Amino acid sequence: MATSTAPKSLLRPMTFPRKLLLGPGPSNMSPRVAAACALPLLGHMHPEFVQIMDEVKEGIQYIFQTNNSLTLAISGTGHAAMEAACCNLLEPGDVILVAWNGTWGERFSDMAARNGADVRIVKKPAGSVFSPQEIEKAVTEHGPRVVYLTHGESSGGTLQPLDGMGVVCRRHGCLLVVDAVASIGGAPLYMDKWGIDVLYTGAQKVLSCPPGASPISFSAAAESKMAARRKKPVSFYLDMGWLANYWGCDGQPRRYHHTAPISNLYALREGLAILAEEGLEDCWRRHRRCAELLHAGLEDMGLTLFVDRPEHRLPTVTPVRVPTGIDWKEVSQYVMKHYKVELSGGLGETANEVWRIGLMGHNATPDNVRLLLRALKEGIDHCRSKVHSSL
Ligand SMILES: Cc1ncc(COP(=O)(O)O)c(C=O)c1O
């Protein structure tokens, strides 16, 4: 006999509000993606499912602009892809240079250190980006085997220029790892042309999929470093040797490694198809146009964007400074209560300083920009009137 009774909360229907997710992620699923999630399960080794995995791989190669054969989706969210990059590429004692201008450099440093790497940091405040000269200076000083950069820093809202970074890394014999979780599909990125060795992203941002399957790709040079490892990576689950085999990247018969998140991969297949139908360049342009509309609207309201230089602003996630005397949380709560719109606060260095507005994938539309601007203005006016009436 069971010793505890069924929880009463589970005997009631799930309460489920509909919200427009205009924070830094997740974005809302597109209806086609939601329909894909509801498809019946296939076995994770069935030929029809393997075909879907192959199509996912082709879609990732397209959005990354790469021909790398070691291209697949990690079962897990963006953090799992970060861990996969770290635990496969780094060995104890390897020097890694992390360009840290926000939360993602900080987290990657932490993960690299947990894998025994000798972590060196080049740091700039959130809201600023690195030049190839700054990276080259730090590389010359530290002599790393691996360099890490964040393409779309969702905590500080910066778009890191990457052209030229691969050349610097090649010149000094090191590999370049790039986090594009918040930027892929929302801003130009060319993995092969820019000489990126490891690139990863997430599913729940521009791809408008549920979190849980994270694209990643490794160059031939990254593969050579992994092949020369002295010891296996500490994680079995994220071991790229096993995953390369399960994803059909090594030319060997596929073996069971883990049960893939089947519905997540259906969703990813559909999210990639939607992006392919729109075309990568048109998708970049749509995100740029929506971001510019948003930026102009925020400035018209008298607000200040956190990132000064327009060319360094991430089109997908915009941090905007909270005016003095306004409680950011109260405004966010107002916007949620009256509009069912998510408006997030800052993260790390930007906590309490900014709101972060995400316009990604399915959600990146001029109508959503207008709705957000109206809701935000109303929320700020509401807080200001409360402050005045209490004086
Ligand atoms: C730039 C960046 N990297 C990594 C992550 C981590 O992804 P996840 O939350 O899917 O684990 C995020 C999430 O917002 C991100 O914005």
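Residues 24-25, 77-79, 104, 150, 152, 154, 179, 181-182, 202, 211 surround pyridoxal-5'-phosphate (CB under 6 Å).
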